[in-house]
Each structure stands twice: as C-alpha cells, then as structure tokens.
Amino acid sequence: MKQVEVIGRNDTLTKHEQILRHIESLGVGTHISVRRIAKDMDVSEGTAYRAIKEAENSGLVSTKERIGTVRIEKKQRNMDKLTFLEVVDIVDGQVLGGARGLHKTLNKFVIGAMEQVAMLRYIESGNLLIVGNREEAHKGALQNGAAVLITGGFDTNPEVKDLADRLSLPIISSTYDTFTVASMINRAIYDRMIKRKIMLVDDIITKSKVYVLKTGSTVREWETLSKETGLDRFPVVDEWNRVIGMAALKNIDRQTPTQTLEKLMTRNPVTVHPNTSVASAAHLMLWEGIDVLPVVDTNRKIVGCVTKEDVQKVLQYIQRQPQTGETFDDQIWSGFTELIGQGDTPDTVTYRGKMSPQMTNYTGTVSTGVLTTLLTQAAYRAVERNKKGDIVIDNISTYFLHPVQMESEVVLASRVLEASRKFAKIEVDMISEDRRVAKALITAHIFDGG
C-alpha cells in the first residue's frame, strides 16, 4: 500500500464535512434548521446541530433571535465593507423587516438630516439611511434600494415593513441617537481597514495540493517525494489526515531505505491555524528554527502548509503597502519625524516629536505604556534601517528617569550596538528639555524579509 499522499479537495468526506459542504452550497439568505438538515442529509439531529455550529464559527451562517439561522455570505478577507447583519450587532439593533437581505453589504451610509426631496438625491442602492421616525423617508429609501436604520428606538408602520420584506432590504431599529450610531459604524469600518494590512496564513496557503506521508512511509518514499517537490520536510498524518509528526532530512539522514517513519519522525510538531497572522507564523519559524509549518483546522486535520519563502514574500509585500488604517502604535508614532544627520554617531537614527494630551495618564504626565511604545518603535526603525528586516523582541530593559510632561518635545536617539544575521542589540535614549528622561536596552531576533 502506498504510504505517500497528495491530499486534494476530492478526498472522501466524513458526514460532518458533507453537511458543511451542503450548507455552503445553499443560497445566501436560506433559512437553516437542525431538523431540515438532519432530514436532507440523513443524519441525526445531534450531528446536524454540531455541523451548523461549526458553520456559524466559520462565518457560513448566522443565528439571530427572532430571525433564526440564515446562510450568509462568508466574510472575505481584505474587505472594508460591513454586512447589514454586522450593523445590527454594532448598534444593538432590532430587525423590523427585510431579514432576508441581512447578508447584503453596506456601501455607504447617509444621515437623513435634510428635507426628503434633497435626501433622496443622495440615496443609492446598497446605502443605509440613518434617520429618526420619518416614515415617508423610510419608504423612499427602500424604494431607492437602500436599507434603513431608525434611531431613537422608534418603530415604523406595517406598510414599510411589508415593503422591506418584499424588497429583501433590512429595516433596523436602534435605541441610540443618530450621532452615536454613525460613530459606531465608522469605528467598525475603521477597524476593518486596519485588518486589511494584517495578512493571515489562510491568505497564502495553497489548499489544492498538500504533500504528506504516513507513519508506514519509508525513507525511500521520503526521498522520492523530496526529489519530486524540492522540499525536505513533510507532515506525517494518521488515517484521518491529522498531523502527528514531521519528517525532515535530519530524521532520515543515514537511515536504511526500507526504514519506516514511525520511529524516525518528530512527534507533536509545531503547527498553526489558518487564522494565524503571517507575521506570527514567521516569528514562530524563527524561534523554532524550521522552514515549513503545517496548517491545521480545529481537529488538527491538515489543510495546507506554509514555507519560509512564502512568508518572506508576504513580509516584503506588506512593507511596500500604504497604511490603510492606524493602530494605536501608528497613532502614537505619527507625530514623530526623522532628523537626518543629527545623531551623535553615523549609525544613530534620531527622531523628534511632541507628546499630545492623549498620551498622558491621570497625573498629567506621559504614561509609561506610551513611552515604552515610542522606545520600541525607535528600535524597530533603527534595525529596519540597518538590516532591512523584521524583529522579534527577546528582552527589553526600560529605565524611566524623569516624568515627561504633556505637549513637551522629545528626541529619540536609537543606535544598533551589535547586529548579526539573526540577532541585534539596540540602545534607545529619550531626551526632553536637554536631559535624558528614559532609556531602553533591547535584544531582538531578526527575521530577514529579503
């Protein structure tokens, strides 16, 4: 029996997987029930229930009070559009009508703070009108292809609800006021934009072909597969395709060709899940000293692999992309500019910036968290300037010598004391009003993105 496999999408599926495929094949907006799935797939209601819960965790379906379980459009990565169902969650809303359209995406929202004739000129299909208890505006928006969010907890008349149901356009009621719901939706869109620059392992793995070995595979079979693929590290799986080991060159070196991998492989190997960030996978490879990571689902069944080359390409790509949303670190660093040629030594990188009121704590001085962020950001940039790579901080010793007042100007001087291909030591000084107010000594691992 051949002990080498290329796992593809046409492998024999379990009943559980067949149910998930069936759910995935249903049209968006289809109502799903445990009893119906059990009958259609000829399984027990317990099996159907577990599969539906997994489909919900995977983003294939959504369950809402007074609506039930509905097949939705699976959330796609790198999208900054919200679905109306997500809007319901964001504003703690109640769906008054048009529930079949909750899977649709929101293109933009319009605040109804003008006369209706003028308002309708701005409303297009896919929009969301945010308005109070103006029933004619509700009706007009639906007729223009837009969903409606009624603020202040108001209801609408049955005619508008019937129209929403016929057009499959949601009409939602929230107890919050117009300004609050607009701010909440804006915040959610902004957070989505930040996520666009965070690539996941699921974005880069190729699931169509996964080369694996079995415990009964021989050293000769490993060598044959290595020659065919150019790889020297393969996952070892059991009969259910669960990863139980890794077989690398170091495991089979100087072994007889007929020796099986069961006693040679490395057991309990390091793995990642599809929703692991690429940066985390890269750092894990660095710490563990490995070039290939198996990607597994929640049952440890293999779904793909990522290599060091894969993540290096992504890190290079990310470095070239514009920033589409600011994290707290981005916001803290945004007020700092580099001072060219003003370091004490040629290898010192210097930055200047002003401490904003948002950076302070209850005492009116800049918080230690902000100071630590600034010190580490300066270290990151010094290494990036010298080594063109990403760093994983191993240890940081910080010294806060004097309190830093808000709106004071500070200078950060960052210097790489020592650097090799894999490690770096960085010293960062923070100067304010001509005296050192903080200092950091940092050791870090370097992940070469080039």
CATH class of the largest domain: Alpha Beta
Number of helices, where a helix is a run of at least 4 consecutive DSSP H or I residues: 14
Estimated structural class? alpha+beta
CATH superfamily of the largest domain: Hotdog Thioesterase
List low-confidence stretches.
7-12
Mean pLDDT: 83
Helix content: 25-40%
Alpha carbon gap, first and last residue: 43 Å
Give an overview in words.
The protein is an alpha+beta fold. It has helices spanning 15-25, 34-41, 45-57, 84-90, 116-121, 135-143, 158-167, 178-196, 219-229, 249-252, 278-288, 308-320, 328-333, 368-387; strands at 4-7, 31-32, 61-64, 68-71, 82-83, 94-97, 105-106, 108-111, 127-131, 147-150, 171-173, 210-214, 233-237, 243-248, 266-267, 292-296, 302-307, 337-339, 348-354, 389-400, 409-419, 423-432, 435-448.
Describe the structure using short key phrases.
4 domains, six-stranded antiparallel β-sheet, CBS-domain, Udp-n-acetylmuramoylalanyl-d-glutamate--2,6- Diaminopimelate Ligase, Chain: A, domain 1, single chain, alpha+beta, 450 residues, Arc Repressor Mutant, subunit A, five-stranded mixed β-sheet
